[in-house]
Amino acid sequence: MSYTNQIILCCLVFACSFFIAMPANAFIANSLDITVNDNGDAVATFGFTLQGIIENSIPQSMLEEELKKGLTTSEEPPELISMDRSSAVLRMKKFAATADVPTGTEYRTVTMDFKKAEIALQSSALSSVVSADFSPERIVLTFPDSYTREFSDVDVLPAVFHTVIDPARITHPSMVVTVTTSTAAKGSINVTSSPGNVTVYLDSRYIGEAPGFFPEIDSGTHIVDFTKDSFSPVRKTVTVLEGKTTTILVVLEYISPVTTEESSSASGSVWLVMIIALLALAGGGYYYWSVKRKNDEWEDDDIVDESE
Prior knowledge:
It is built from 5 helices and 19 strands. By secondary structure, the chain is of the alpha+beta class. Strands 1, 2, 3, 4, 8, 9 and 10 form a 7-stranded mixed β-sheet that branches. Strands 15-14-17-18 form a 4-stranded antiparallel β-sheet, with no helix packed on it. It has a 3-stranded antiparallel β-sheet with strand order 5-6-12, with no helix packed on it.
């Protein structure tokens, strides 16, 4: 084999290894915060990570569709409220069944099997380019009275039973006094946010990060500010009632940074490299075939000359 042919074969091997060595794309679930409303519906904030060299090339509409399928818990699919490349906020209908009991309202949540979502993804249009881990590292379930249950690294979220006590239904005097004294002139705020790790200020005073639960808030009207780097700030006027939890849903809009063009050009560069590699593969194959054909013709001519 000539030196030229060896170079061509090395180029072909390099081009093939480029595609074989390309890292697989992955959808990794990080966290799931579910806040149950009084009527049994819920708002879920789903944090995730997209990994892979062509993650920005996957249409968001396809990700939204697969995410809604993966988090469906009833006959009605979840309603997508907002979504970016790291989190999504969804409204989940009939997430918990409610029933009146002598002391208040009993809630029974549905189970969520995250492995079924992964199996569903394997038969979808994204299966060839994306592998998925739908099991969140952390799950926090919050009920209307701010009672929470937390789970870590589970493939199935079990059904959870919880009774929200209604003080008006409690007849024992000592119980009534206890409830009233612990919540007098105070209320609480439960914040569900997208994205996560949003800084919260109450009347210009830092109180923590959202999603989160903030107890011991003075009753009355407050100004709540939500901020995060690279996102537009949001300000809300919130009324806190004595002994009640005020639920807030806040969605911050992502601000495209100046480096967006660089990111786009980087993504475009990836596709350019892939196209060049394909052209090199095709051109190298054609050149190798043409050289081999000429060599065969020369050998045939030499054989004819020798026979004459």
